[in-house]
Amino acid sequence: MEKTLHTPMYILISLLLSVNLTYSTSLLPKMILSFFGMNQISLFGCLAQMFSVYSCIMMESILMLLMAFDRYIAITRPLHYWEIITKNLLVTFSINGLIRNCFLVFPLVILSASMRYCKSNIIPHFHCENQVLLQLACGDISKNLFIGLFVRTFITVCDVTIIIISYIQILQTAMKIAAGSARKKALNTCSTHIMVVITIYLTGLLASILYFTSSTISYNVQNLCSAVYFFFPPTVNPFIFGLRMNEIKESLLKPWRKKNKPILIRPTPNNIVMG
Fold this sequence. Notes:
Elements: H1 8-35, H2 43-76, H3 81-84, H4 87-114, E1 116-117, H5 130-134, E2 137-138, H6 142-176, H7 180-212, H8 219-244, H9 246-259
Antiparallel strand pairs: 1-2
């Protein structure tokens, strides 16, 4: 509703929070129902949840890339920012990101659907995940392991590497700015996004490490770390953006300030009566 925020960066922020809300909604209702004993899920529902969560996580990574690119152009080429960062560019990148996600996630879901599960029908987690389903499967699981490892490695190495390179270039450009105030402003514009990137990828790295060492760690610890990975970033991201970015903060406070604006009484000069 606030037209002053209809700029590329704030469009990306709204998309990021929408993605966070989507995959949290894919997980949270089923997790709450399991606390009340309604802990059954069909294979189709399990695969649908897995597809939704994986797609949203990959889309989140795409948006992190776009944010890094946006800040890179804003600081290294500020005079050409509005020529390069356009709504068409954002739409194109977003659509390409969705296509990439489908190509990476669909094979994993299809292979999981075609497998035979005979070891058990109990998933010791609050959500469906490829690694967990493989523990219940019978037969050859090498293809699933390879594709799962490829997807995780590709997303992590490719996206994180590009983000790191972008921020290295940003810092180098910021250090070349002579004026202290201009340098501080340039660094402040990136600090918020760096905090969000660290929050997302650090919790993701912790969850990945636990999956590789799952044989030595209890399921309760794994579930706790998975919950932190899935729910902590969506919870703190709105606060990070709301508190660190002045434009969002001012837009949120504007209606409250208008409502509580004091009434000023201006005295008028006394009428002069001519005798």
